[in-house]
């Protein structure tokens, strides 16, 4: 279906209805939705050599999902096997490859195509996308499904380049390196480090784990379902019933944790009690006890991390790092700890949405300038000044309390509505209106002010200026409810302005 004139790198090689950027959960889900709605004139650009997003990029030992399989999947495509309660990295990757294949997305994929610029052409009302290999793609609609956790963050610790051993980020795991019997340093104690630590500690001679801030942790049930549950899952309708129950459970139990005040106290009490049970050494326990409210950073769900901290070959280091030297890491107390392998479990540049792509909207405005003080998008999916462009998993649409594939499906359904409306209009581009955006932002600011994230605790949820730009401050059901209106109520038609911006105060 895709035609291309190879070699003519400065020419338009594709001219389509829709260009999707990114082939993770968001891009694949969008592709399936387009096909099912009868749109076949689209491409999915992917910087990697296959689909999968973060589940292609993160292959560190122990890489797993701490969200149950029945939630961490598309509503229309359950995992084939009902054995596992939680999917591992390879299983999720296979699942995404399988969905792309089964739903006929393969011919639409353009792999190894990293987007560099995206420009709205005012005169044509269309988007022009350029990839790193020089290809130019034009499309009526651009949908950016880049995800939030795909650009590794490596802190600029003094001496970083002096390290003589092997150093890499968890999302760039070097599988040629054998950690058996060697000294390993792991910097960071978030979810990636917690999953990695038990695996690496089981083979390394010694692991020094450098913690700057402890994370709250809740236990995770065993990965495999028991025989009875497996049997129950075979009953027709059981999958959907269990999925619904998990959704409701997450909304009822996890979502209240994000709010300041009493609603998080039961979870915090439970986490403390669990910590007390699993870490016998009072000094170690004190060192890993957070001093901020639970939920301030994403909670780790894991049952193997605490016991691993007590292993004979694991040392938790809480003295701040002073510098990295050729053969190890030095802390401010003057201690030098050897390392042959240095793992940065230091997270992602999550607040820098759309970077490093240069995105120009209406009248040549630059997205990164518009977002100088922090990214903002209507329901995480549309930005004023950028007509016919949509985001999946854009600002403030990550849920720390439920299923992110589900959040993306809600956005996808809404984007599809926008596409249909755009077609009905027969010409003008559609863009979120200023009133709807202002009302939404007002609502969002008020909602975030009531969350634990609004406090001083540092996390990837925030822009460097402290503004909370990543998480959604409600339940997944709230998100669905707020998207349950026709786009005409929030969007406006650019050019002919046939649909004036409504007073959208009633929406939020
Ligand atoms: O990254 P993080 P992650 N010196 O940002 C530390 C998802 N995920 O890759 O807290 C010393 O959470 C930093 O310290 P501090 C999930 O959403 C999902 O672990 O900033 N330390 C922190 O401890 C998760 O939230 C699954 O003080 C430094 C760590 O590095 C997200 O990915 C599995 C430092 C970074 O933690 C990111 O998790 C895994 C410095 N200069 C991940 N700079 C699932 O199972 C940073 N740190 C679905």
UniProtKB/TrEMBL annotation:
InterPro entries: FAD-bind_Monooxygenase_sf, FAD/NAD-bd_sf. Gene3D superfamilies: FAD/NAD(P)-binding domain. SUPFAM superfamilies: FAD/NAD(P)-binding domain. This is NAD(P)/FAD-dependent oxidoreductase.
